[in-house]
Amino acid sequence: MNKTTFLISTLLTIYTVPSFAQNTTQSVEKTQLPASASKIVTVQEIATQVSMPPTIIQKIATPSNAQTSANQVYFHLDKNLNLIAKNNEVFQKLEEYLDQKQRRTIPVLKVDDIATIEALAKLSKSRDISDITLLSNNEEILQTSHQLIPMTRTALDLRAETSWGNTPQDLQKIVQKTNQSFARIVVIPNQLLNKNHVSFLQKLLITVWADASNTSTHPAKDAASVLTTGVNGILTAHSDIFITTLKQFPKNTLLRKPLVIAHRGVPTLQDENTLESAAYALGVGADIIENDIYLSKDNHLVVMHDETVDRTTHGHGKIEEMSLAQIKQLTTQNKNRKIPTLAEYFSLIKPVKNVVLMVELKSANPNLVPALKAEVEKYNFADHLVVTSFRREQTNRVKSNLAGVSTGILVGAMPNTGKADQNAYQIMQETQKYASTYNPAYRSDLVSLMQTTKHRGISYWPWALDDQTFKKLYIAGTYGITTNSAQLYAKYIVGIKTAPAVNVKVGQKFYINAELQTQDGHSIKSKANQYIVLGASPNYVQSPQKDTLTFKSKGQAYVLAGYQYHIDQQNSYTIFTTPIMVNIQ
């Protein structure tokens, strides 16, 4: 087979959905929904041009100030199912709140005891309570919730963990505790709230919320500081400030960088699922490397997509019927590469900071997950690992054997009921059942579904898409995008750094020097070409393109410096710094 023929063959088979996955999806679509399935709340959205902005959760201080423009509302829930405001007054019964026909907010409910979970379980027998979020700092409470009311989503509250430091061990502890609680959402301690930590947790498939209720002399600056960390949700007593700030950003602003997932490495340039392909993906800056594993006849984990070696190697036969020695004799058809073990992948990726390995469990072999657990423990690799599968029984085995590791459910076809709210409802149900992310094949309504379900802590990691679709999903703020061609996105601008403070003269048109970072880690000296002035400030004028500022009087201002990057003539996005202090003299 020549190189061109091999490449075409690879591309034709690269996103094939297994027959068992197709059948599973069809059976899900036929499931009868409860009567309340079409009653999931239509959340009031914020009029912002930010791509996939964070969900905003208003803390209700008193029953009299319960009106809000936020997406969600935060109460304490007692064992009598009363909603308690911040001042400890009873707002109303949970059932009364849920029955409000004009309601357009989702309740986030702090739960302190198992008695409250038991009361909710009793209520769930007479009504659907899946479209609420239960928040607790107690893992046992959340585990009990998953057992008694598994369709109700949960969030782990770690705000009180003020002693945790900025170490990889503490960040990994967050991932482990969240997964062991069967939660997808975590509220992180304030001292860990920065862009790098948030991104690390998101790469490990965790939905990150922050508490931003503290106030200062410049609340707009504080709001922007939280927004630019890229968190998925924000609890605040001052949602109006966050909403006002969100409205200032230009079209296609990315507060959170979409993650580039290298599907089997870079199979358009290197033989798929080889160490060389994975190394190439690392070189072009992929955030996550994806591969597929089977268990050999003599119980070694090996990397291969198909159940046979026929398509990708010079050999023939089922890989699970071969010994490791036999597999190591095989070479790939195009470049004569060796078939790697999973341990070899671990050795390649572990030294690389901030890169995650996404392992797909291809086989139905019940011994696959215990073998994976042993390998992960041997190489201390849990802080680099997430696991996906079309096979739900394997996902359950991961939950039992590797409870601290995040999982994603692969989906051949999303629900297609003809009604957007029912499609969203089914996605909510499946992700909650398996406490996992949603990893579907691309469909044209994906972005609108992401917008609807982001308030429910659901993140999407789509696959089966071409370059134009990748660009569309990237500027839409998708969580992570799987691609066969990670090299095409190596030069995307993904970071901007400036001095924390600058001095300017009154009446002087100014710009801010910036250092831009590309996806593959290179730095470029440039200038910011977008500016946002935050809150109260001295008088200023701004060019129509928002690329320069001129202050008209002395004082101090806080500014976000941004960079608009043009992918091509049709597609662009803008990223921003944290707030910069501008001293006008």
TrEMBL record:
Keyword Signal part of the UniProt annotation: yes
Classification via InterPro entries: GP_PDE_dom (IPR030395), PLC-like_Pdiesterase_TIM-brl (IPR017946)
Keyword annotations: Signal
Signal sequence, renumbered to the chain: 1-21
Keyword check for S-adenosyl-L-methionine: no
GO terms classed as biological process: lipid metabolic process
Top-level taxon of origin: Bacteria
GO molecular function, one term: phosphoric diester hydrolase activity
Xref: SUPFAM superfamilies: PLC-like phosphodiesterases
All copies of domain GP-PDE, residue ranges: 258-493
Classification via PANTHER family: GLYCEROPHOSPHODIESTER PHOSPHODIESTERASE (PTHR46211:SF14), GLYCEROPHOSPHORYL DIESTER PHOSPHODIESTERASE (PTHR46211)
Official protein name in the record: Glycerophosphodiester phosphodiesterase
Organism: Acinetobacter gerneri
